[in-house]
Amino acid sequence: VEQELSYADRAKLPNVHPLATKLLNIMEAKQSNLCVSADVTSSEELLQLADSLGPNICMLKTHVDILKDYTATFSQKLQSLAEKHNFLIFEDRKFADIGNTVKHQYEGGLYQISSWSHIVNAHAVPGPGVVKGLSAVGKPLGRGCLLIAQMSSQGSLATGEYTKAVVRMSVHFLSLYYITLCVTHNLGFGFTAVYLCYLSLQLNMAEEQPDFVIGFICGSKISKKPEFIHMTPGVQMQAGGDALGQQYATPEEVLCNKGSDVIIVGRGILEAPDRLKAAESYRKSGWEAYTKRLGR
Ligand code: 5BU
């Protein structure tokens, strides 16, 4: 039986993105695969959350556009807290436009997300251009991106063949351009053959250096490549849902049975009477489910 790699083993893989290495090392060091979704509307409260739950988490997820009082100073303070407590920041922006537009949305505007968020996510709906656009801004800064391959909400259309296509896009996003070129320019057979050779080279290069996409938002493990991080929202101690279509699975189900790497928990912690105690119990459940999966 093939033994599964631990987070620490995966951090050392030769082709892993430096940011994924950093995350995997944080997870191992803090024994935490918990990402808290800090869905609050006041900057002060968010910073307080980051400071108090910081020691228990590997990552903090934000929706900056729900803050009523965002300032650049807030983002600086959040960055300091991320350094103080050794966690990564993930702005759940869900980019979904053409490359040129997402470039501006990522770098500019009010929030200047690329300047403070280690990780962002994107829908694959627009095609490879969305990753290309984001990567033009994020790659020089050492940032990483998660592609949304599945969603936790009821009736999500991101399933089946779509999910598979997202996984393929994570590796091949450059190569798709060459295929399109071949087809649209209706190149002859000889040309196409040469292109295909070039293409397979490109594929290998992409696989050797996954340069911006570090993983997926998904409900279960969807790629066999241990370099990719699988992150799952819709997690609570009790399976169920909310009134607006959110669906919940337990940490045990997500990490042990579904093979994901990181659990994302919002209201399971935010609405608990003692947030710190709740975060610690999610961290502990998450870590136990992971070690059970490894069988160590
Ligand atoms: P909850 O309070 O644990 O239900 O919050 C879940 C968070 O994860 C919330 O910020 C959502 O916007 C986010 N989310 C999600 O729930 N499901 C998804 O498929 C994606 C993001 Br992508």
From TrEMBL:
Pathway linked to the protein: Pyrimidine metabolism; UMP biosynthesis via de novo pathway; UMP from orotate: step 2/2; Pyrimidine metabolism; UMP biosynthesis via de novo pathway; UMP from orotate: step 1/2
Binding site for substrate: 39, 61, 152, 246, 266-267
Record-level GO BP terms: 'de novo' pyrimidine nucleobase biosynthetic process; 'de novo' UMP biosynthetic process
GO MF entries: orotate phosphoribosyltransferase activity; orotidine-5'-phosphate decarboxylase activity
Ranges of residues in domain Orotidine 5'-phosphate decarboxylase: 33-282
E.C. number(s) listed in UniProt: 2.4.2.10, 4.1.1.23
Entry superkingdom: Eukaryota
Keywords, sorted A to Z: Decarboxylase, Glycosyltransferase, Lyase, Membrane, Multifunctional enzyme, Pyrimidine biosynthesis, Transferase, Transmembrane, Transmembrane helix
Membrane-spanning ranges: 176-198
Catalytic machinery residues: 92, 94, 97
Family under the similarity heading: In the N-terminal section; belongs to the purine/pyrimidine phosphoribosyltransferase family. In the C-terminal section; belongs to the OMP decarboxylase family.
Protein name according to UniProt: Uridine 5'-monophosphate synthase
Organism: Dicentrarchus labrax (European seabass)
Lineage: Eukaryota, Metazoa, Chordata, Craniata, Vertebrata
Gene coding for it: umps
Span of the entire protein shown here: 223 to 518 of 521
